[in-house]
Amino acid sequence: MGKTLVLAEKPSVGKELAKFLNCTQGGNGYLMGSKYIVTWALGHLVTLADPEAYDEKYKSWRIEDLPMLPKELKLVVIKETSKQYKVVHELLKRADVDELVIATDSGREGELVARWIIQKAGFRKPIKRLWISSQTEKAIRDGFNNLKPGKEYENLFWAAQSRAQADWLIGLNVTRALTCKYNAQLSAGRVQTPTLALIVERENEIKKFIPKDYWTVSGKVNDFTVHWSSKNGDSRTFDKKKAEDIATKVNNQMGKVVELNKASKKELPPLAYDLTELQRDANRKFGYSAKQTLNLMQRLYENHKILSYPRTDSRHLTTDIVPTLLDRLKSIAIGPYEKFARSIIKGRIHTTSRLVDNSKVSDHHAIIPTEQHVDLSSLNREEKNIYDLVVKRFLEVLSLPFEYEQTTLVINVKGESFSAKGKIVKSKGWKEISSSGANEDKDQSLPPINKGEDVKLNSVRSVNEKTKPPARYNEATLLTAMEHPGKNIEDDSLREALDNTSGLGTPATRADVIEKLFNTFYMERKGKDIHPTSKGIQLIGLVPKDLKSPDLTAKWEKQLQLIGKGKANSMSFVKEMREYASKLVGNVVASTEAYKHDNATRVKCPDCGKNLLEVSGKRGKMLVCPDRDCGYRKGVSQMSNARCPTCHKKMEIRGDGDNKIFVCGCGYREKLSAFNKRRESEKSALNKKDVSRFLNQQNKKDEPVNSGNSAMAEAFAKLNLK
């Protein structure tokens, strides 16, 4: 009897599938049963070949050899995971294997993982697809009972491969052109460059901004606050004397209520989470990076099985999920969620088009809890925080609207208009679920008052304020800007077109793009704010204008979506990318700009003798060699969790061995021995052993220096060139 081979993306998922399919016979890199054999990739096992695979000359980086445009891009087995590829290849070639079930992640990149392995191995037998949105036993059972023909997902593969080939053609060519032209470790990509351009453009806006003084006028009526506004409805004036004259004219004067409007209003629940919205909220509330949130979601989906598939751009559910809502509510009717879940179950579940809409779901529905039993004690703090966000949002979406009565009044005093708004809550509805949501309404409560009533205005004063520059991006606002890059585009038709695209990258790739920009030192975190580095600012000045344009990149992403739906041609798209890569290389070669290492130190590289550069990484400062072929790096300082006893800010650790010292920006310095002594005397939890363990952990956490050396080669090999 023939067997069915099941290919998962990771060992952990493969082993779960094997358990369900009764595959208990252990093999090297696979598990087997009477009917099924389950094996797995380790992420990508196959990738696009490096340039030197096409021609020996590409081993050296020379500008005269560009652009690199092989007739056909080859697939190669990734060296580090070749052992597992061999296992999968041999299983695909087994005579008793009749068919293959692709069980990699249900998305564009998951399809690519499997199809490249299939292509490289030359597998020709029937293919089916397991397409599931959660890893629970029920979801797996339903998925295997409803396997889809592999042919239905071929377009998704063409889209994924087109993305990978576009990133190879543009990323590798422009990166080599920039690196050779300016003799610096510079890189560019189809998505990373316009994303960096957003950060640099915002920094330029802030630098050019000149604050202006303006004044507002407010006063009190019966203990509530009223605000002045002009006849045009403007609540501020740039004329100091005018503001002071108004305040003097109306203070302690009688006025009349000339308008009084009361309206019953409803605020509908928010939409369910997609990945980008969840990453935004996690960054705002907990300071988590986009990458950190995605990793936590992946664990909650894959290991704990209590949340649905994370890499989704949909905020709605499909009709087939509605019958499962009761079981999902029962699974979360625990701890802090029990009261609200039971209340929704008791009142019968009402769904509207704000939650259920087949037309607004692409590959996967919104992120919601699964039917799996939840043990909150098994989650760590970070996992709990993400789970809490998703569960509360799920409960909110299934709850009643927030209802209130809003009162708006206008008072006329000596010909000047003052207004106030008040709110009386009638029903908290969905806002009762999230404590932050319940307290976010700051509208004052107005006392009983009637139209035509005479009132006295007192405590009137004018307040001087200054206009503020646009805020720097943090990860939450950068994700929004990547999702909607058309907001800053003046052309109405182009902006409208962009609003209908997925923006820069996809929900699945944006976290990696942001992380790469930090790891290659184009931007850095200062608190929650993102600042471009000198390297990042200079790069945006050097790259061709088209490549930093968000509208062009978003249109490319739209083309990839259409390819995935079978509405656009993959070969045409790749042909366009080949032509574009040539154009971009030509632009770099013809440029007359210069690049300056303004972070160079006087410290010489011990390997090649060049002056080392000082860069800021995620965990402190490093010295790195500017030579792409050298790649030397050395840690200078690391940010610790120890607080300065003077100003209470986190201190840096500098030096080596027994010479390590703690240094604070306020000027405080303390030797490691003195630090330990002080901590012991304070009977702090952070003792000498903790410090030693902390330092060891820090030393193990070296990060990629930049994309110019082996780290770059590795990144390119994995096609993270967005």
From TrEMBL:
Lineage: Bacteria, Bacillati, Bacillota, Clostridia, Eubacteriales
CDD domains assigned to the protein according to its UniProt record, in alphabetical order: TOP1Ac, TOPRIM_TopoIA_TopoIII
Region Interaction with DNA, annotated ranges: 187-192
Family: Belongs to the type IA topoisomerase family.
Known function: Releases the supercoiling and torsional tension of DNA, which is introduced during the DNA replication and transcription, by transiently cleaving and rejoining one strand of the DNA duplex. Introduces a single-strand break via transesterification at a target site in duplex DNA. The scissile phosphodiester is attacked by the catalytic tyrosine of the enzyme, resulting in the formation of a DNA-(5'-phosphotyrosyl)-enzyme intermediate and the expulsion of a 3'-OH DNA strand. The free DNA strand then undergoes passage around the unbroken strand, thus removing DNA supercoils.
Residues at the site labelled Interaction with DNA: W61, W168, R176, R311
Enzymatic class: isomerase
Active site feature: Y309
Keywords: DNA-binding, Isomerase, Magnesium, Metal-binding, Topoisomerase
Gene3D superfamilies: 3.40.50.140, Topoisomerase I, domain 2, Topoisomerase I, domain 3, Topoisomerase I, domain 4
Region (Disordered): 433-453
HAMAP family: Topoisom_3_prok (MF_00953)
The protein's Enzyme Commission number: 5.6.2.1
Record domain Toprim: where: 3-136
Binding site for Mg(2+): E9, D105
Gene Ontology MF annotations: DNA binding; DNA topoisomerase type I (single strand cut, ATP-independent) activity; magnesium ion binding
Keyword Isomerase on entry: yes
Cofactor(s) needed: Mg(2+)
Record-given protein name: DNA topoisomerase 3
Ranges for domain Topo IA-type catalytic: 153-585
Keyword tRNA-binding: no
Catalytically driven reaction(s): ATP-independent breakage of single-stranded DNA, followed by passage and rejoining
A GO biological process held by the record: DNA topological change
